[in-house]
Amino acid sequence: MVDKSENRCDLMMFGALGDLAQRKLFPALYQLERVGLLARDTRILALARDPQDTASVRRQLGERIRHYVKREELETDILDRFLDRIDYLSFDFSDSQGYQRLNDWRANGGGALIVYMATPPSIYGMIARHLRDQGCCNEQTRVVVEKPIGHDLDSSRVINDQLAEVFNENQLFRIDHYLGKETVQNLIALRFANNLFATQWNQNHISHVEITVAESVGIEGRWGYFDKAGQMRDMVQNHLLQLLCLIAMDPPSDLSADSIRDEKVKVLKALRPITSDMMETHLVRGQYTAGTSNGKPVPGYLEEDDATKGSTTETFVALKAEIHNWRWSGVPFYIRTGKRLPEKLSQIIIHFKPAPHYIFDPDQKHLANNKLIIRLQPDEGMELQILTKDQGLDKGMRLRQGPLELTFSETFNASRIPDAYERLLWEVMKGNQYLFVRRDEVEYAWRWVDQVMSHWQDHAAHPKRYAAGTWGPVASIAMITRDGRSWYEDA
Ligand code: BG6
Questions:
Q1: Residue 94 CB coordination number (10 Å)
Q2: Phi/psi at 48 (nearest 5 deg)?
Q3: CATH number of the domain within which 243 lies
Q4: Rounded Cα–Cα distance for residues 430 and 7 (Å)
Q5: Cα angle, residue 180 at apex, residues 338 and 451 outer, rounded to 5°
Q6: Active site includes 67?
Q7: Which candidate in 130, 151, 239, 282 is catalytic?
């Protein structure tokens, strides 16, 4: 049974009228209210520049919540109760005087103070300094910040340094929303609660690993932001490398934040740098052209609204990562992520090595390796492909491959999988950092990504084209085929 009273808090939301807050954060907080996880006295202070009053902001947020939350999950009395928790302050974040009003608001409250910076990272430092100088925070304050933490190692250090001037590392909750996904957390349970896998999880038994995070959407009105970032910074540096760490890390000694994060950092440190002579064999960069998505024609990246002609930003990355340690020596991790691919699909496939001595029909030898398919989204679940004998008197000992299947929604009768932000906000309220990214993780990830980006820059590498609605440039298929393998969909 959860004791909510311990989690009573005051939440200050900077950037409360921005897209992230309205699309993700307030709907997630509403869901916490719905399932009874907000303590009775928890209060929310929405902060933004717009000169509005609390009543009109409550109305606006109520509309957005009605828009983003599924109809069957909307309960008017609960929504009203949730909106009543919200106060609004129209506020210029650069005006130090304004922060006094935060103290006035806080004077009537209690519980832990959580500051959520749903703002551009360039102003995290400024907000932090004002909070300190105006006495709005103390050593118990928890601060939540979003990616991107910089656009490379140097710029991430600047942001991290600015935050560190005011807050200790144990006060900082850096969000990578993939860590809040139910199925991503299940990777920890799968690996460290099942001894069956623990003994197999290394280069003796695994031949290679595939990680695919595909999206069918394009840039969705975010061209300006996305064009500066590209898929490598937007997805690989954070979400994909976090998934890789959870698959590759050694068992932590317990579930504490630092035990888990120490093991993830070791993986990042062991990633083999991709040097310029490996660019052709280990890296593919793509950009979508016009094509079809869900049966409808869609424009290419360069024809999207607000696009700049001739941009060479990548919307697709495929790469072969190698981890230089005992566990993973010789096991490639093929990683692939892109916009405007045929479907929204995040999955990890562990390919096990075949048995050491094969005694069945030689024609079927290619079947003889087990695969563990971990479906992160949609249709969350796991599937272990195993070999059995084909049924029937005439089949002899012919083999066939079939799944041992676990679909979460069916097996556990779970009607609803919470959104990542619900989990993450709830963990911040409990003060638990294990689903958040530590400074050194961010920096080691940048270090690895930076050297790839610098080769692209040095070689003025143009992305390879792929039509919207396909699985990326053919070069990404060639990359894995050269190793005698194929992407799961193509097998
Ligand atoms: C975000 C990226 O972090 O993750 C977006 O900035 C991307 O470009 C999104 O679309 C994908 O998240 P999800 O949860 O929909 O897989």
A1: 10
A2: -160, 170
A3: 3.30.360.10
A4: 6
A5: 45
A6: no
A7: 239
Q: Indicate whether 59 and 191 sit together in one domain.
A: no
Domain limit, last residue, from 123, 146, 169: 146
Phi-psi region of 469 (alpha: psi -120 to 50; beta: other; left: phi over 0): left
Which residue puts its alpha carbon closest to atom 14 of ligand 1?
A: 178
Domain identity same for 186 and 134: no
Same domain, 211 and 89: no
Q: Give the count of alpha carbons within 13 A of 447, CB side only.
A: 15
Could you tell me if 94 and 128 are in contact, meaning their C-beta atoms sit under 8 angstroms apart? no
Domain span at residue 381 reads: 179-418+438-481
How many domains would you assign to the chain?
2
DSSP 238: I
The last residue of one of the domains, among 103, 129, 146, is: 146
Ramachandran sector of residue 230 (left: φ over 0; alpha: ψ -120 to 50; beta: rest): left
To 5 degrees, how large is the angle CA 157–CA 160–CA 166?
A: 140
Q: Which of 23, 234, 348 to mutate to test the pocket of ligand 1 (most atoms within 8 A of CB)?
A: 234
Q: pLDDT tens per residue, the chain (491 residues)?
A: 555 556 789 999 999 999 999 999 999 999 999 999 999 899 999 999 999 999 999 999 999 999 999 999 999 999 999 999 999 999 899 999 899 999 999 987 778 999 999 999 999 999 999 999 999 999 999 999 999 899 999 999 999 999 999 999 999 999 999 999 988 888 999 999 999 898 999 999 999 999 999 999 998 888 888 999 999 999 999 999 999 999 999 999 999 999 999 999 999 999 999 998 898 899 999 999 999 998 999 999 999 988 888 899 999 999 999 999 999 999 999 999 999 999 999 999 999 999 889 898 888 888 878 999 999 988 888 999 998 888 887 878 888 888 888 887 777 776 688 899 999 999 999 999 999 999 999 999 999 999 999 888 887 678 999 999 999 999 999 999 999 999 987 66
CA distances from 394 to 276, 389, 390, 398 (A): 55, 12, 9, 9
Segments of 290-378 assigned E as strands: 291-293, 296-298, 316-321, 333-338, 345-352, 371-377
Q: Please choose, from the candidates 441, 9, 47, 1, the residue with its C-alpha nearest in 3D space to the C-alpha of residue 261.
A: 441
- How many angstroms separate the alpha carbon of residue 275 from the centre of ligand 1? 28
Whole-number Å distance, alpha carbon 236 to ligand 1 midpoint, is: 11
Q: Best mutation site among 24, 179, 215, 232 for ligand 1, i.e. most ligand atoms within 8 A of its Cβ?
A: 215
Task: Check whether residue 83 and residue 139 sit in a common domain.
Answer: yes
Q: How many Å lie between the centroid of ligand 1 and the Cα of residue 216? A: 11
Q: Which amino acids bring their CB within 6 angstroms of ligand 1?
A: 215, 234
| C-alpha span between 295 and 292 (Å, rounded) | 6
**Burial classification of residue 488, based on how many CB atoms lie within 10 Å of its CB (0-12 exposed, 13-18 middle, 19 or more buried):** middle
